[in-house]
Each structure stands twice: as C-alpha cells, then as structure tokens.
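User: Hi! Is it possible to get a structure for several chains at once, not just one? Here's what I have:
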Amino acid sequence: MLADTPEPPYYAVIFTSLMRDDSAGYAAMADKMLTLAQDQPGFLGVESAREEIGITVSYWADLEAIRAWKRDIDHREAQRLGRERWYAAYRTRIARVERDYGFDH
Amino acid sequence: MLADTPEPPYYAVIFTSLMRDDSAGYAAMADKMLTLAQDQPGFLGVESAREEIGITVSYWADLEAIRAWKRDIDHREAQRLGRERWYAAYRTRIARVERDYGFDH
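Assistant: Yes, the chains can be modeled jointly so their relative placement is included. Here is the combined structure:
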C-alpha cells in the first residue's frame, strides 16, 4: 500500500485538490488515470488518500517521465475535465526526492 | 485547506503511513504535533488526508528547518510512540519542490 520506491534520487508529483459538490464521473476517471499512469515509462509508484482534501503522490524516475505523462492525450482530457467539472481548486508540486527512510513491522 | 506555499524552491516532507488496528491516543498526539509544527521556524504549510493509508505533506523553507523539527524533543517522543504503538509501517521522503502550479475557481 505504501509505494515501494527505489533509492533516491527520484521525483514526486504531489497533487492536492478540493472537489466541488458534484463529482459525477470522477471516480471512474480517477481509476482509469491510475491504471494508465502505472503503464507509463518511469512510473515508480503512487500513494493516495482523500478526506476533506485529496492527496495523490506519484513517484517517477525523472522529469522527462513526468512531462510525458502530463502530455499524454487521455491524461490531458482528464486534466481538462478536472478543471471544468470536478475540482474547486488544486495544486501540483513537482519535487525531487533526496532522501527517504521508514520502517515496517 | 490547500497549503498556501511561496514560490519554489522549498522543501516537502511526504509522510505516508499504515496504522495498526489499535490507534488509541493517536488522534490527540497528531493534533498536538500539528500545532507544534506550525510554530516551528521555516514551517510553510501542511496538507493531510487518511483513508486506507495516511498521507501528510508538510512544507518547509529549507533542510535545516526540517532537521530542527525532526530533533524537537516532543516530536521525538511522538516519533517513538508512533513506531512502538501506532504505525504498522511508514515512510518519510524529503523532497525539494522545484515547480508548482494550480488553479482556484
């Protein structure tokens, strides 16, 4: 469930959003985009949770992989619908992961 | 609700976790740590959501601010309790935010 990413450095796309009240069609599109993202070159993993806000962090090998996914034709259509229908606000942050640590029982 | 961060560069701490079944005491400690973090030098904002996994992304001016918060005595006690009592697994990723964009209706 936690993304099993390789040794840094790699990149994270931190996507946070607030939904509008009517989210018809959103869940199906989110599932489709998740499936598509996982097939992209350079995709390393994803972590997602939604309460009052939604947070999706996807991990990528390099900036070129992020750029290619942003330009993907189906993803572009999803981004357009997101702005027009589903999101009240969102923010995308592109970040270089420099260090990680953790534990597992 | 979405963090109102300044122009990049700045830093993100991406903390993702799986809870154990018994989370007694966790919510109160999480609230306390959130309040404390917001008073730290260099703190820029935080975004948090939990479903199957928990994701908390905190934003910081620089690495020294992150190090100082990691060493904070109350925070160290919270980290210890997290490992001993609350988390089945967690991962902390330190990342440099290089670019961000978004929109607001």
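Residues 10-97 of chain B form a domain with the Alpha-Beta Plaits fold (CATH 3.30.70.100). Residues 50 and 56 of chain B are 8 Å apart (CA to CA).

User: Great, thank you!
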